[in-house]
Amino acid sequence: MDHSSVTSIHLTDAQRIDWLRLIRSDNVGPRTFRSLINHCGSAREAIERLPELARRGGGDARICSQAEAEREIAAGLRIGVSLRAPGEPGYPPRLTTIDDAPPLLGVGGDFGVFARPMIAVVGSRNASGAGHKFAATLSRDLGEAGFVVVSGLARGIDQAAHKAALANGTVAVLAGGHDRIYPGEHQGLLDGILGTGGAISEMPMGHVPRARDFPRRNRLISGVALGVVVVEAAHRSGSLITARIANEQGREVFAVPGSPLDPRAAGTNDLIKQGATLVTQASDVIDAVAPIIDRPIELPGEEPDDDFTVDEPDNSARARIVSLLGPSPVGLDDLVRMADASPAVVRTVLLELELAGRLERHGGGLVSLV
Questions:
Q1: pLDDT in tens, 238-252
Q2: How far apart are CA 202 and CA 319, in angstroms?
Q3: Which residues is 201 bridged to in the sheet?
Q4: Between 312 and 158, where is the model more confident?
Q5: Most buried of the four, 15, 124, 231, 240, by CB within 10 Å?
Q6: Which residue ranges make up each domain of the chain?
Q7: 261: burial class by Cβ within 10 Å (0-12, 13-18, 19+)?
Q8: Which three-class secondary structure state does DSSP give residue 130?
Q9: What does pTM read for this prediction?
Q10: Correct CATH for 107-289 of 3.40.50.720, 3.90.190.20, 3.40.30.10, 3.40.50.450
């Protein structure tokens, strides 16, 4: 696999602490992190300006302290987990291409596994015997063909996929911290995975996964992979969320057909109707992703965008933009037009509101007031 287009970077110890402090501060997610880097020029400058920006947005922001960041880094290293930035060894190259890639990713296991082509295999926790068997066969065949099988360490299909792929390397994507495995009975499975494969999480050490953390985890499962295979999924299954996100990320989506009489196959059958590639054997997946494997991977820069001009809003512009926002989502272009303001001014006001905890971001670049 050719990753020559992925720029190699290496953060200094001081930079890594600054990045961690910024991403662990209140109301700072991956997109906000990048907006702050663009706006302020560096993580350290962003940390210094956080209180002022949040105050302008009508709130305040708790800033992660240097001591907290140092404790998290040390706790990870004690169990063999290090924090890697996009472009550093251990950070899955394809993950760098998604819009909300984590600025820092906790990585454990064999770093070499993350440079290999990956296929995600996901499905129902309450899987049928046939689903378990197919997931295992597919994962074993993909592993023997040189692919790394990625899944979410859940019961059911995830468990079957990981176990079958152990010999050739598999990657677990965690919803909680590396020291808070869910479900707890899969700690032994994870220990086996780390011997020949790896595990990743964007969550801090000690973080116990909550319901809202699993969709966030799902975007990483699809983000690291060339494509996602859904083996079994009922309507409203979390695996269907993974498939939807994979489609939004430009990943290949595959589905295994099932009996119309089995509700565990209802979601996968619907995916096939919607255009997902039907899968009955590993070669269906391999043939579909073969043309993608050697395409160059472009790494987005962490430095300020050339077109991101810092243009501080005055009070009247800020009030005008805020007045146009409400509970209904609206796009940046519409705000620029209606407020008669520059894109830089509108972005700055949105950043201030986000840091104050008053802004919610939606798909398609839409925003609304909380």
A1: 999 999 999 999 999
A2: 35
A3: 106
A4: 158
A5: 231
A6: 107-289, 315-369
A7: exposed
A8: helix
A9: 0.89
A10: 3.40.50.450
